[in-house]
Predict the 3D structure of the following.
Amino acid sequence: MLPSYLSKADLHLLYVFIVVADARGFSAAQVDLNVSTSTISRQISDIETRLGMRLCSRGRGGFQMTAQGDLVYHAAKKLFQSLEEFGNEVTGARDNIAGHLSVGVVDNWISNGTSAMVRALSKFARMAPDVSLEIHTLAPDDLELGVLDRRISFGIGVFHSHKPGVEYEKISEEHVDLYCSTEHPLYNCRNPARLSEGIANAALAKRSYLNESHVAPVTRGMKSNAEAHQIEGIATLILTGHYIGYLPQPFAADMVKDGRIQAISNGDFALPVSIELINKRGHARSLVERTFVECLTYQST
């Protein structure tokens, strides 16, 4: 029989079930729960009895979630997220702002000369010293997935194709440029014909999470057998002298100054890109989240 209300014990059992599901098994959940597998097994049996449904199968075939277990898992995640938001709102109703804030940022945005993120976090830390902060560095696709399943409150990055269920807000802009190293044939190339031929025959170091030809027409049809998930990886490939690739201008500035790389054709292939703040569409922001956005958008304007 489904419970008409959830007791404190029910909430604990649901929490145990979430930990077990995330760990994909009883043994793997032992460390987080700090109890024996026999205790975990009994607790899972208790919540299954309480709910009147089987949540998972365990045995020689390994741990497997049932269809009902999957539904309960996602509902329980939403429940605990709502409880956290309630706690944040109630705590924030007092004189101080308290709670938890998790933010995901695309790699190397901090290299942007505006340093908006650093200034925003500095102001936020002064306004809300009791809030626990969690910062993740993720690729754009992972940022979007993170806000959709509420693992992170906000994502900040470059998003060339917008996904349903995600809200996007432009907060700043930066420029990227096409670079090569001193060892590359295109270094210091100024002849238009040689430049055009050299780019057509060049190998591109591409970002694994981005369709470069969609946002940078010059790379359309360009061969590429090397990719990287982070900007540092792209820079490393460029420095080998075998590849050209796009980098944010603020990130590339020191390497340009040191003479290690150069913008191809003196910056003719530079492009503006929007930095956007994302969160889950329809999500009611807590006081902690509203305070952070106010700090960020103020610093970014």
DSSP finds eleven helices and eleven strands in the chain.
